[in-house]
Write a structure and sequence with these properties.
Blueprint: E1 3-7, E2 10-13, E3 18-25, E4 33-39, E5 46-51, E6 57-59, E7 67-72, E8 77-82, E9 91-98, E10 113-114, E11 118-123
Parallel strand pairs: 2-11
Antiparallel strand pairs: 1-3, 3-8, 4-5, 4-9, 5-6, 7-8, 9-10, 9-11
Length: about 120
């Protein structure tokens, strides 16, 4: 059984930092694309960042330069370091995975497994 469990969320003030973790079980993330998505209240879910098995990362324009996605294959865990947080970053953040090391899908519908989500709240 595959599980993705997010942790590290919470409430911070504008300009603060948080690091989200996504601990995987039932899969070896070495052979997977790992991605982060978010969904604000009343908004559609949007792509935040993704990293393939070769550590090539891509970011949404809204977070590029502030967020860093990484992975620790030995711990079977992916991370999202969020710096310079803004109120508009407030959302439920989800970890997802796709079963290929060399390719991250464009569409979220192609991702195989999802975490339950974790709340990030940034106050002004």
């Amino acid at each position: 059984q595959v599980q993705l469990v997010e942790s590290g969320g919470g409430s911070v003030q504008t300009g603060g930092s948080l690091r989200l973790s996504c601990a995987a079980s039932g899969i070896n993330i070495t052979r997977h694309c790992m991605a982060w998505f978010r969904q604000g209240s009343g908004d559609e879910r949007e792509d935040v960042a993704r990293i393939n098995g070769y550590d090539a990362a891509k970011y949404a324009d809204s977070v590029d330069g502030r967020f860093t996605v990484s992975r620790d294959n030995a711990k079977n865990t992916a991370y999202l370091l969020m710096n310079s947080l803004k109120p508009e970053d407030t959302a439920m953040y989800y970890c997802a995975t796709y079963s290929a090391s060399w390719y991250c899908p464009f569409s979220e519908k192609e991702f195989d497994y999802w975490g339950q989500g974790i709340q990030v709240t940034v106050s002004s």
